[in-house]
Amino acid sequence: MNAFRETFRRTVEELAAEYRLEPRWTRGGDRDVVVIPKQKLEGFEVRFECLDYGVYASADGWHGAPWDVTIWEAEQLAESLREFISSVMVDAVLLVYESNGKPYKWVLEHQFEGERVRDKTGLFFFNWFGRRGQRKYSNAQPKI
Questions:
Q1: Among 68, 94, 96, 113, which one has the highest count of C-beta atoms within 10 angstroms of its own C-beta?
Q2: Pairwise CA distance, residues 131 & 133, whole Å
Q3: Is 87 helix (H, G, I), strand (E, B) or coil?
Q4: Residue 128 phi/psi, 5° resolution?
Q5: Ordered per-residue pLDDT tens for the chain, 144 residues
Q6: CA distances (Å), 124 to each of 57, 100, 103, 127, 134, in order?
């Protein structure tokens, strides 16, 4: 295991303690997988897969660009993971677009490098003529 994976483990464990999360871990020879469960009924779970060369995040159909070891230093990874996971817990929104009740596009609105971004993932082929709809998920707790 290299410094990249060690940083990943340490950062996720610290954030889990800070937010009182109960992530599900699978730690193995060539990869670590952690799933942060949804925090409320209308929330969404986030899954991270960390290998020696990168971290891949996904959330209920959405997947983003990886944190790649050729671009990210271990400490930069820690900072970015903190920002991402904090955003998922506090203010991120997952929009799921459907056609005839089947998802075809996912948009995750979250904080990245100090800015609000909209990461999109979608299918090339879906029922273009179907009845469209949208569902919205968030782990953020209502403000009192």
A1: 94
A2: 7
A3: helix
A4: -60, -30
A5: 688 899 999 999 999 999 999 999 999 889 999 999 999 999 999 999 999 999 999 999 999 999 999 999 988 999 999 999 999 999 999 999 999 999 999 999 999 999 999 999 999 999 999 999 999 999 987 765
A6: 21, 16, 12, 10, 18
Domain-by-domain residue ranges, the chain? 3-72
Residues 6+ apart with CB under 8 A from 118: 107, 108, 109
Bridge partners, residue 15, by sequence = none
**Would you say 139 and 110 are in contact if contact means Cβ atoms under 8 Å apart?**
no
What H or E segment, with its residue span, contains residue 83?
Answer: helix 74-90
| Residue pair 117/65 in contact by the 8 Å Cβ criterion | no
- DSSP bridge pairs for 54: 51, 68
For residue 108 the two structure tokens come to 């995750």
CA 71 → CA 38, 56, 66, distances in Å?
30, 14, 10
**Amino acid at residue number 20:** R
Running DSSP on this structure, what letter comes out for residue 78? H
